[in-house]
Design goal:
This protein folds into two domains: 202 residues, FAD/NAD(P)-binding domain; 122 residues, FAD/NAD(P)-binding domain (3-Layer(bba) Sandwich), CATH 3.50.50. The strands form seven sheets. A five-stranded parallel sheet has the order 6-3-2-10-22, covered by helices on one side. The chain has seven helices and 23 strands. The relative contact order is 0.17. A hairpin with a 2-residue loop joins strand 20 and strand 21. It is of the alpha/beta class and 334 residues long. It is elongated. The structure holds flavin-adenine dinucleotide. The site of flavin-adenine dinucleotide (FAD) has 38 residues, from helix 1, strand 3, helix 2, strand 11 and helix 6. The site of flavin-adenine dinucleotide has 38 residues, from helix 1, strand 3, helix 2, strand 11 and helix 6.
């Protein structure tokens, strides 16, 4: 059993910065995230996009901001449980919470901070009847390690940036890549579409438009995708992997059943300390809602700074907290 002062659900920018603010008050933190890496939306959706409204940085790439936050919190040695979803909570008579994850990991603390952003990202799946049978047996919704596709036959489905970018990238690694899209036009950046068309002309990839994957065949492991094309009709395409890239849709998930006051998929809080209706549970960042809420990184940072002052009193009911600047006390001298 892992024991800590604060369990933080969500290792996005606001969860990460909570570690820093808590650390200044000598509160230990353990982060849980369903994704395999920290950074939340910044890592998962837009790592290479510049952000212009982080104070002190006229421009910083989202991925770089995550690296800087990780560096900033390193002195406080936070614990991480990644790739596991927070599923359930229990509270004992002394007010200590036990959080259980999707893989059965248990973490105990007197305070929980929910920094779950838009919720857990879940892939949008195409309506193919037996698709779940081939998940991790040839069907992947997220590309984690491109090397896995080395010398393999791949069918990618989708028409957005993700589908086009991976088609271009995997065309250099895989044995063959076929991109299928249900419309004639792609939504992706024109530059990527142009590159894909050129590769198709040279015979390096196949582009099949006005088509859909309608079935999957294989004995235990995928070996064919059934494609239905407007003019050609249905045919079977040999494939080791089928990768539908239709985007990720966030879901509040199990937290919706914890007895928290929820308003349009967000958790209602008291703006005096960002506490929820359950004493000991707080919510910061995109996941919370209150009049005037702005879903911005800098607002989540502010919320974390205010919130830890209140959390301190739960962890240390007998201690007095005196406010100090980092310029006076440094980072670990509080
Ligand atoms: C394209 C794009 C551009 C943007 N540009 C800007 C910008 O310029 N400036 C700006 O300030 N903001 C911008 N934003 C918004 C910004 O990304 C969010 O405000 C920010 O990510 C919120 O941080 P967070 O830590 O609250 O949540 P998130 O970044 O969403 O992280 C939440 C984390 O919680 C995890 N999680 C959720 N539920 C669970 C659970 N049950 N168990 C375990 N883990 C869970 C998720 O996996 C996720 O990693 C942009 C957003 C997008 C999509």
């Amino acid at each position: 059993m892992i024991q800590t002062d604060i369990i933080i659900i969500g290792a996005g920018p606001c969860g990460l910065f909570t570690v820093f603010e808590a650390g200044l008050l000598k509160l230990r933190c353990h982060l849980v995230d369903a994704l395999p890496q920290p950074g939340g939306q910044l890592t998962e959706i837009y790592p290479k996009k510049p952000i212009y409204d982080i104070p002190g940085y006229p421009s910083i790439l989202a991925g770089e901001l995550v690296d800087k936050l990780m560096e900033q919190i390193a002195p406080f040695k936070p614990g991480f449980t990644l790739g596991e979803r927070a599923e359930g909570i229990d509270q004992d008579d002394e007010g200590i919470f036990t959080l259980t994850t999707s893989r059965g990991t248990q973490i105990q603390a007197p305070v929980i901070v929910i920094a779950g952003g838009l919720g857990c990202f879940e892939p949008r799946k195409p309506p193919i009847e037996n698709i779940t049978r081939f998940e991790d047996k040839g069907v992947d919704y997220i590309i984690r390690d491109p090397e896995k596709y080395h010398d393999k036959s791949i069918v990618i489905a989708g028409g957005g940036d993700s589908a086009l970018d991976w088609t271009l990238h995997l065309s250099e690694i895989a044995k063959e890549v076929l991109l299928i899209h249900r419309r004639r036009e792609f939504r992706a950046a024109p530059d990527s579409v142009e590159k894909a068309l050129q590769l198709a002309q040279k015979g390096k990839i196949q582009l099949v438009t006005e088509a859909q994957a309608v079935g999957l065949n294989g004995n235990g492991k995928l070996n064919e995708v059934v494609i239905k094309q407007k003019e050609k009709g249905s045919y079977n395409q040999r494939a080791d992997y089928f990768i539908p890239l239709f985007g990720l849709s966030p879901k509040l998930g199990p937290m919706a059943n914890w007895g928290l006051n929820i308003n349009k998929n967000a958790i209602e809080i008291d703006t005096r300390d960002y506490s929820t209706n359950i004493p000991g549970i707080y919510a910061v960042g995109d996941i919370n809602t209150y009049p005037g809420k702005l879903k911005l990184i800098l607002c989540g940072f502010h919320e974390a700074a205010i919130m830890v002052q209140s959390a301190f009193k739960i962890v240390n009911p007998d201690k007095k907290l005196s406010f100090k600047y980092t310029t006076v006390n440094g980072v670990t001298g509080f």
